[in-house]
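call fold(seq) -> tokens
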Amino acid sequence: MILDTDIGYDPDDFVALAIAARTVDDLAVITADETQGRRARLARCALDALDRHDVPVITGIDMGGNHRFVMHDHPCQPPRRPDDPVNIVGELLDAIAGVCERTSGPIVWVGMGPMTNLALVLCSFPDLADRLSVVQMGGWLDHYRDKTRASHNLHTDTSSAGLALRAVQSPRLVLSDFTNSPHIDITADSALMRHLLSTTATAWQRLLAANFQAWFARRSGSWMHDPLTLSAALDQRFVAFRTERIRIERDARLYRDPHGRPIDVACAVDYPEFLEWMHETLLR
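ret:
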């Protein structure tokens, strides 16, 4: 499993990373919407605290979204000099190729951020389109807070989203229609936060608590988009899918269209069962 995550912004990414670290043996992490290597350093710090020193962390493409990072006051190591973008791309592709060469079977790609890294990988290694089983968080069909644009992950890099969704076979989308839900909203007074801030919290839990607190300075809560998406990638069956014919517009908005391409999209979620699983897996 490859986790493509923009960790260090909305804390749902960190929650998903922690769950993956506790449930997936053969795991690799690549950072989406990178910002001067800070997401990669945070992911490395979190995984080390979770005793997953074996999990490689690959620095993804930097999109200059410095405002989409909230962990400035919690560096895990000193900032490094920004690399030459050409070198970053080369290192990224070499690392992904290495991960893929170590297994001969299918590879689950869990997209929890913009689809920039996935599009680059598919352009460079088109044969991987046959091996990647892509579960992506994002997209909407009926309900979104701003219907003038695609949802965040697709909107941040519309070209890559359009390319990747057309290139992979049978992508599964955990739509924002179902992840933007108060049923999976973690707030400052949630039971999860009380545990993370308790005297018994571990080092990784305290780091996660810091991510939540930095996020709460901007928003009142965090919807658990990415842990829900991860649960689908793990075949936990909390998310039900159906196949729709989808037209992908140039701005990455999605529309039902009888002439569109078939994509499996979320159609229902068992929120109580998902939350029980999330808390049990995260805090056991």
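The longest helix spans residues 85-101.
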